[in-house]
């Protein structure tokens, strides 16, 4: 049995309390949410935090809802929302099926029952799925610290592998996804086995006005896409019509710009190929959903 | 209700709907699909596994392992670890050398380091052992041990192990100048070359059966407890072979064998991983001697995957010869066997390649020959494990791939080619070109049954139609002959111990019974199956028979459970002791009924006087009488018990026909198994439900090995599959609903006609899956595992070398 080194444990009662604890214990302390990334690393003694600050009681970080501000709606997903909750959320199904697609292929039910949206994003694994999905959706992360809240685009959230803009004494509070009409979205993943991390995965979101793409988002994970984003392929598609040829071309452009590294999941050429193939497939399904509804 | 509850589909049922086995509502008096007696305990969470055991005052051990694949140990400083307040002892190779225990013999005429003294030879090798008050402190203290290593070049690619100038791994052995372990041959080389020289068609292929790991759910571990007063050593341990372990402890540690008790508690899967003795076990023994307290050592998952017995790792060059109309003539193969840093395979000791030389398979062939070369590399030792029937897995993979390669080259249908060449029922007993005497089988009927269940012709039509549309599906066939139940002691021994097994049966005065076995279940259901054998012979309900296994103080000597040998060997011993008891019971019954034994007839559970069924004695009454004041004939001892040591006259030879149907995504290379048909012939089925469970498990293994289980090493010798995130086991999601069928040709030389089945599906399924995937993509050969990346690369003609890191 793998066992972690010794650590202290604190249970936060509110966001402000958690921030106070983070401030008190300093950089050797860590928040624990679902624990499905942190605890395994502690057991392998790759991570050795001196103090764990448990945020599982923080109601402010829970729930999925529609938030309205200045006449615009957004889907609000609390940082402590478990994968399973998002997977089963009717609001997600209705507005952003890409999230449901992605959740269906993240880990397994046991992990999904505990693992959280906030933990996934803050872990910032370069193969993490939701980072790609939220990138595609142009989502916004809401971060709170001692000085109050700030908002950061999902595309600027990650600063490198396992690194984010969340400071030592800050907490990711929620993720907001703006709701605009005419959208369709989908997620495609290749894994070696169910529950495995992605060999490559990609999600696409389209906002259509009739047959014209008014806005587009393409997120890619595990293939070394800068900020999990296929920006050049998005630029190519934005403003143009929905056609199969253009989706294939967008895939080609996406593949050209990724920088995958070889590992036991596959060689570099294969991952590059998948970046293109999955981009095209996700775009196809996103368009079908925008045009014909989620069933597509 | 006993044998009429098997899963054979009723006539007229459509081919794809194979009826699942019906489980008997009540306990059958003998054979039949009864629920497993042990499951009442397991499903209530009342299994008692090694890590559930806590002895008073028990300490905990942890192993410090080498981060390098090959390095000189310059120095080891344990002072900081020893100063840890909860640490009781730190043991190093030097400590062990003082006791003469730094090295131990392997099961293959080699020695293995218990704790490294001079060099480390694979990543994960044992370097030091800490004993502490709890497992947390033991782990903490590992970080306090300072080892100064001087890294050396490592031999990682087995194909370069014999290169001029390759680093010599085993410089501990006198006069060693290279990494060569052995050369071994079987078959008639000249006759085989002759056949090849005159053949119309020869197909050859290089193939790797990659290194895989049995990865049982429960990892290995042990608790050693030396009683300082009696001098008795008790070792609780995860072993498939408790008696062999005891003898080895006696030989290695010089402890008197009668003062050693080895107890195997419930085992959570073994598959061969729990046959050998690991350094951690020996360290726990030394730990209890040094500290005077019981010491528990349980490895974690990464330790299990990195350091305990792997399986396979055969680099093969195979060739097959045939006439131009598809009559197979011969097969020959050269093998490079990667044995890791110590030659520690567990197989019959006269057979360095195990039973690999059954590789002529299920076909009538004039000649066959193999030459196997074993080499050292800087990887963990092991080599025979993982339900392989002593390397028959490799043999079946070789021949079944070669047959498909031949069919591919010639444009022949792989089903027809097999059908044409399978041994005919009238050829049995059949002596192969390699000297094996196959006992029985009806191969053509078995294959035909699988083809019928699959709806083979229809599948080929569907495949053609899909190809037209640019979709890929494949159909893969494998036909295997297993050789299990090792074995005749004349030819088969392990460390000089002949492979015979004992059984003891005692019927208590009230007619209940206890059966003591030398084999050891790791989940196979022995408690049920072996009670059913006694029930069938004596008419005592399986519920009334206690089956004792796993404790050397409680059971007769024998070599344990692996190589599918329990039913062929211990099952035979069980049937024979039951028959001996029945003979005694007959004499007692004759005395009770005041007739001659010759006048008695046996009906299950009672003797009655011939011609007068009302004059009878039931087994329970006989048991009571046997223990009573009833006067017995001269020389009859009374009581109702017997013992037996069964020395198998031959192996048993199960067979099977497997058909796998896969779909492959052309754009991503993902292969998914849509259907899997398995028709097995394991002779008489004692508990068909348990047989099917064994087959299910093995089929899942095959899907895993063929598609995902990957244990590669980078050029520095780093192990790239040391967790379940990297070493993928298949889940229910990758497994279709298995479609099973059966044929039954009893083994003529086995007392109840049963053959082993524990490994059949693991042996037979990998080539079926691989053949299916390659059939789908139209590629001649690519090595396992066929991960999406590998399938995609194979489609582009650039297959991946799966034993090395993907670069
Ligand atoms: C077997 C397995 C398979 C998996 N497969 C996949 C997969 O296929 N795809 C995938 O995307 N993921 C996968 N995961 C990861 C899984 O989704 C985890 O749940 C997730 O990575 C972490 O979420 P958590 O709540 O468990 O975070 P924790 O482990 O509790 O925390 C992770 C990190 O985030 C920090 N953190 C947590 N919450 C916050 C917050 N609100 N604000 C600031 N920092 C915070 C913690 O301090 C810690 O550093 C897998 C995990 C496992 C164990």
Please tell me how large the radius of gyration of chain B is: 27 Å
Total domains of chain A, how many?
A: 3
Overall geometry of chain A: globular
User: What share of residues are in beta strands of chain B?
Assistant: 15-25%
CATH topology type of the largest domain in chain A:
Uridine Diphospho-n-acetylenolpyruvylglucosamine Reductase, domain 3
In what order do the strands lie side by side in the largest sheet of chain B? 3-7-1-14-11-12-13
How are the strands of the biggest sheet of chain A laid out side by side? 4-5-10-6-7
Question: What structural category do the secondary elements of chain B indicate?
Answer: alpha+beta
Architecture overview:
- The complex is a heterodimer of chains A (296) and B (807).
- With 296 residues, chain A is an alpha+beta fold.
- Chain A folds into three domains: 47 residues, Uridine Diphospho-n-acetylenolpyruvylglucosamine Reductase, domain 2, CATH 3.30.43.10; 116 residues, Uridine Diphospho-n-acetylenolpyruvylglucosamine Reductase, domain 3 (2-Layer Sandwich), CATH 3.30.465; 109 residues, Enolase-like, domain 1, CATH 3.30.390.
- Chain A contains twelve helices and 13 strands.
- In chain A, a hairpin with a 2-residue loop joins strand 6 and strand 7.
- Chain A starts with 7 loop residues before the first strand and ends with a helix.
- Chain B folds into three domains: 341 residues, Aldehyde Oxidoreductase, domain 4; 185 residues, Aldehyde oxidase/xanthine dehydrogenase, a/b hammerhead (Aldehyde Oxidoreductase, domain 3), CATH 3.90.1170; 147 residues, Aldehyde Oxidoreductase, domain 4 (2-Layer Sandwich), CATH 3.30.365.10.
- Chain B is of the alpha+beta class.
- Chain B has 18 helices and 34 strands.
- In chain B, 59% of the residues are buried.
- Chain B starts with 38 loop residues before the first helix and ends in a 12-residue tail after the last helix.
- Chain B has a seven-stranded mixed sheet, sandwiched between helices.
- Chains A and B meet through helix 12 of A and helix 4 and helix 18 of B.
- Bound molecules: flavin-adenine dinucleotide.
């Amino acid at each position: 049995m793998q066992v972690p080194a010794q650590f202290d444990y604190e249970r936060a009662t509110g966001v402000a309390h958690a921030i106070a604890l983070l401030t008190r214990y300093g950089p050797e302390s860590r928040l624990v949410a679902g624990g499905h990334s942190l605890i395994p690393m502690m057991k392998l003694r790759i991570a050795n935090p001196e103090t764990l600050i448990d945020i599982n009681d923080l109601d402010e970080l829970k729930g999925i809802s529609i938030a309205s501000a200045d006449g615009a709606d957004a889907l609000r997903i609390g940082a402590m929302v478990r994968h399973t909750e998002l997977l089963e959320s009717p609001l997600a199904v209705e507005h952003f099926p890409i999230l449901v697609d992605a959740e269906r292929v993240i880990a397994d039910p046991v992990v999904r029952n505990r693992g959280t949206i906030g933990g996934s994003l803050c872990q910032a694994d370069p193969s993490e799925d939701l980072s790609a999905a939220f990138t595609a959706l142009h989502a916004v992360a809401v971060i709170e610290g001692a000085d109050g809240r700030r908002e950061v685009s999902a595309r600027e959230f990650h600063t490198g592998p396992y690194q984010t803009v969340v400071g030592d004494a800050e907490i990711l509070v929620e993720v907001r996804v703006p709701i605009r009409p005419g959208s369709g979205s989908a997620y495609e993943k290749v894994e070696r086995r169910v529950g495995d991390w992605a060999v490559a995965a990609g999600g696409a979101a389209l906002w259509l006005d009739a047959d014209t793409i008014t806005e587009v988002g393409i997120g890619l994970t595990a293939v070394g896409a800068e900020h999990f984003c296929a920006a050049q392929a998005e630029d190519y598609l934005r403003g143009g019509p929905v056609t199969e040829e253009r989706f294939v071309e967008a895939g080609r452009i996406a593949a050209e710009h990724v920088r995958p590294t070889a590992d036991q999941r596959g060689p570099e050429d294969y991952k590059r190929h998948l970046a293109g193939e999955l981009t095209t497939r996700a775009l196809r399904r996103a368009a079908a959903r925008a045009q014909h509804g989620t069933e597509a | 209700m006993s044998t009429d509850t098997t899963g054979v589909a009723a006539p007229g049922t459509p081919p794809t709907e194979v009826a699942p086995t019906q489980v008997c509502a009540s306990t059958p008096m003998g054979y039949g699909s009864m629920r497993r007696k042990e499951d009442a305990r397991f499903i209530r969470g009342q299994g008692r596994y090694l890590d559930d055991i806590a002895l008073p005052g028990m300490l905990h051990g942890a192993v410090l392992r080498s981060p390098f694949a090959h390095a000189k140990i310059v120095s080891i400083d344990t002072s900081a670890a020893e100063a840890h307040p909860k640490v009781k002892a730190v043991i190093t190779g030097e400590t062990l050398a003082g006791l003469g225990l730094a090295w131990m013999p392997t099961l293959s005429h080699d020695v293995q380091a218990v704790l490294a003294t001079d060099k480390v030879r694979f990543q994960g090798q044992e370097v030091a052992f800490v004993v502490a008050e709890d497992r947390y402190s033991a782990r903490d203290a590992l970080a306090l041990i300072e080892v100064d290593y001087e890294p050396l070049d490592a031999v990682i690619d087995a194909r370069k192990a014999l290169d001029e100038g390759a680093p010599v791994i085993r410089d501990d052995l006198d006069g060693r100048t290279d990494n060569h372990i052995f050369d071994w041959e079987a078959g008639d080389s000249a006759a085989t070359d002759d056949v090849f020289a005159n053949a119309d068609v020869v197909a050859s292929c290089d193939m790797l059966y990659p290194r895989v790991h049995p990865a049982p759910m429960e990892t290995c571990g042990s608790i050693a407890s030396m009683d300082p007063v009696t001098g008795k050593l008790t070792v609780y341990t995860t072993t498939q072979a408790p008696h062999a372990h005891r003898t080895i402890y006696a030989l290695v540690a010089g402890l008197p064998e009668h003062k050693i008790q080895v107890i195997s508690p419930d085992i959570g899967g073994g598959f061969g991983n729990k046959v050998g003795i690991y350094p951690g076990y020996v360290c726990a023994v030394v730990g209890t001697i040094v500290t005077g307290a019981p010491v528990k050592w349980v490895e974690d998952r990464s330790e299990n995957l990195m350091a305990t017995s792997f399986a396979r790792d055969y680099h093969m060059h195979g060739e097959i010869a045939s006439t131009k109309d598809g009559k197979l003539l011969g097969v020959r193969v050269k093998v490079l066997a990667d044995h890791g840093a110590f030659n520690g395979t567990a197989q019959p000791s006269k057979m360095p390649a195990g039973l690999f030389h059954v590789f002529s398979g299920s076909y009538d062939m004039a000649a066959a020959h193999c030459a196997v070369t074993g080499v050292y590399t800087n990887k963990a030792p092991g080599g025979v494990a993982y339900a392989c029937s002593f390397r028959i897995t490799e043999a079946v993979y070789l021949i079944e791939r070669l047959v498909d390669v031949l069919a591919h080259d010639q444009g022949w249908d792989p089903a027809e080619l097999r059908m044409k060449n399978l041994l005919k029922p009238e050829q049995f007993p059949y002596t192969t070109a390699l000297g094996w005497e196959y006992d029985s089988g009806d191969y053509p009927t078995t294959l035909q049954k699988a083809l019928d269940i699959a709806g083979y012709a229809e599948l080929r039509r569907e495949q053609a139609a899909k190809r037209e549309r640019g979709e890929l599906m494949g159909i893969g066939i494998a036909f295997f002959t297993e050789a299990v139940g090792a074995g005749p002691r004349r030819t088969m021994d392990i460390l000089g111990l002949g492979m015979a097994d004992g059984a003891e049966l005692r019927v208590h005065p009230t007619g209940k019974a206890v059966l003591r076995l030398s084999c050891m279940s790791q989940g196979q259901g022995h408690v049920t199956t072996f009670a059913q054998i006694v029930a069938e012979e004596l008419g005592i309900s399986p519920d009334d028979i206690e089956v004792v296994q796993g404790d050397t103080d409680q059971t007769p000597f024998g070599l344990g459970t692996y190589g599918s040998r329990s039913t062929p060997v211990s099952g035979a011993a069980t049937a024979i002791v039951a028959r001996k008891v029945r003979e005694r019971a007959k004499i007692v019954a004759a005395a009770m009924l005041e007739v001659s034994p010759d006048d008695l007839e046996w009906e299950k559970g009672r003797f009655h006087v011939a011609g007068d069924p009302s004059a009878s004695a039931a087994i329970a009454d006989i048991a009571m009488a046997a223990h009573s004041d009833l006067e017995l004939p001269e020389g009859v001892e009374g009581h109702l018990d017997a013992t037996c040591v069964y020395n198998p006259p031959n192996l048993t030879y199960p067979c099977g026909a497997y058909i796998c149907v896969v779909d492959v995504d052309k754009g991503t290379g993902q292969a998914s198994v849509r259907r899997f048909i398995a028709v097995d012939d394991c002779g008489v089925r004692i508990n068909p439900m348990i047989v099917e469970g064994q087959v299910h498990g093995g089929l899942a293994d095959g899907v895993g090995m063929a598609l995902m289980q990957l244990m590669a090493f980078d050029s520095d010798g780093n192990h790239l599959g040391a967790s379940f995130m990297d070493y993928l086991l298949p889940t229910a999601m990758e497994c279709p609903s298995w479609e099973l069928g059966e044929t039954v040709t009893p083994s003529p030389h086995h007392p109840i006609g049963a053959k082993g089945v524990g490994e059949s599906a693991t042996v037979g399924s990998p080539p079926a899956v691989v053949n299916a995937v390659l059939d789908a993509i139209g590629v001649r050969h690519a090595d396992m595992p066929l991960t999406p990346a590998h399938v995609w690369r194979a489609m582009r003609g650039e297959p991946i070398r799966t034993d090395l890191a993907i670069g």
